[in-house]
Amino acid sequence: MKTWSNTSSRSIIFTIFATFVALASAAVVAQPNDQVLTKKVAYSDLNPESEQGAKVLYARLRHAAQDVCSPLQSRELTLQQVWRACVDNALASAVTQVNKPRVTALHNQNANRANAG
Fold first, then answer.
1. 30 within some domain
2. Which of 8, 43, 79, 108 is at 20 to 30 A from 97, Cα to Cα?
């Protein structure tokens, strides 16, 4: 099994520009706009065309998005919303970059569930 540090051509690097503004009208919280957060996710050990491979890759992408956005985690409700938006945007971007139909389908199913509930 290949490791996360593998430099395989089948990997994706999350790049998130860390300009975050809180959603509350009373409070505005900004992070430095020159900060770039990245995380590399290798998947050369997976077949993203299979159902199981797509599920594992999607879980890796979701975990990486959470890691990339972790500096924004807070117990404050407003900042939780900012963190959630960061994770959602990072994950959507990564799924688009991977461009595998089964991974995209998983993402769409999860997004639809989140929006419905």
1. yes
2. 79
The residues near 31 (Cβ < 8 Å, ≥ 6 apart) are 18, 19, 20, 71, 72
Contacts of 8 (CB under 8 A, 6+ apart): 2, 42, 44
Helix residue ranges, H only, the chain: 51-68, 77-98, 101-116
CA distance 78 to 93: 23
CA distances (Å), origin 3, targets 6, 26, 62:
5, 45, 17
pTM of the model: 0.71
Query: Structurally, how many domains does the chain consist of?
Result: 1
pLDDT of residue 47 exceeding 90? yes
> Within a domain: residue 2?
no
d(CA 79, CA 86): 10
